[in-house]
Specification:
- By secondary structure, this protein is α+β, with helices and mostly antiparallel strands.
- The protein has 2 domains: 2-118, Protein Yojf, Chain: A (Distorted Sandwich); 131-237, Trna Endonuclease, Chain: A, domain 1, CATH 3.40.1350.
- It contains 5 helices and 13 strands.
- A hairpin with a 4-residue loop joins strand 7 (88-95) and strand 8 (100-115).
- Helix 3 runs parallel beside helix 4 (217-225).
- The radius of gyration is 22 Å and the shape is elongated.
Length: 259
């Protein structure tokens, strides 16, 4: 890992040379706007920005495991510019295919670095029960969502993104299914609603179903108000708990470390 200068003007010149080769890390005070498949406007706050060499962009708050805003890999060119008037650093990414724009403005940089990571040294492993596995199970057992449901396509691409599952119900209606392996949020419901609006704009009748571990009442109310359906499927019932290896101790006393 190599540290970069913290001056905004210097970073704007240096950062482009590290894109597509390194993982770039910036930490400081910023605000941001994402305008695309969803719309998100974040006020000033301390955040960490990760840009991977495949073009993936992840913006994290000080707490939580999930990014508050993100952009998928190879979505579009990433550009850094420096504003001399207010001494800010602007990152901009645009994805022409879906007309998505991502703007991040840093007002203060506390940490800047790039990390040269070799893929051949990345350790492998097995993860059981992530969102992809959840979708895999739903493809194999669509009756978990609805009786006589037939999956037609997975990751169906439309102008506003990728629909997790595209299916047909027992009445031969087409169905767009959004899958979340956690409690559903209003953002998830809004995303599904945009998918259905897209089909309506094409003159097509498509049902919408939001599948999640749990769907709160406020999300169900939104779905009902927009003629969408919700289905709660606790993923724990599909994926049994992975047993901890016997050699792995859950807790250790302080004396153990000294010895």
């Amino acid at each position: 890992m190599d540290l970069l200068p913290k001056k905004m003007s210097e970073l704007a010149v240096i950062l482009p040379s590290h894109l597509e080769k390194d993982t770039v890390v910036l930490a400081g005070i910023c605000d941001s706007i994402f305008d695309g498949r969803i719309k998100s406007d974040l006020e000033k706050g301390e955040r960490v920005l990760l840009i991977k060499k495949d073009g993936s962009i992840l913006l994290h708050n000080a707490t939580g495991t999930r990014p508050v805003q993100w952009q998928r890999a190879k979505a579009g060119k990433i550009v850094f510019t420096h504003n001399d008037e207010d001494n800010t650093l602007l990152m901009e990414s645009y994805r022409p295919k879906t007309d998505e724009s991502f703007f991040i403005t840093y007002y203060e940089i506390n940490f800047a670095a790039f990390i040269r990571m070799k893929e051949e040294l990345s350790g492998g492993g097995e993860t059981i029960g992530d969102e992809k596995d959840f979708v895999d199970q739903l493809v194999l057992h669509p009756d978990l969502i609805e009786p006589e449901l037939k999956i037609i396509e997975r990751e169906k691409e439309i102008d506003f993104g990728f629909i997790d599952l595209y299916a047909q119900d027992s009445s031969h209606n087409f169905v767009a299914i959004e899958v979340k392996k956690q409690n559903a949020t209003l953002t998830d419901a809004y995303q599904l609603h945009r998918y259905i609006e897209f089909f309506q704009g094409q003159g097509e009748h498509v049902r919408g179903i939001l599948v999640a571990t749990h769907i709160p009442k406020k999300v169900l109310s939104y779905l009902k108000a927009h003629n969408l359906d919700g289905k709660s499927i606790p993923w724990q019932e599909i994926f049994p708990t992975v047993k901890r290896p016997s050699k792995l101790v859950r807790t250790r006393q302080l004396d153990n470390f000294w010895s």
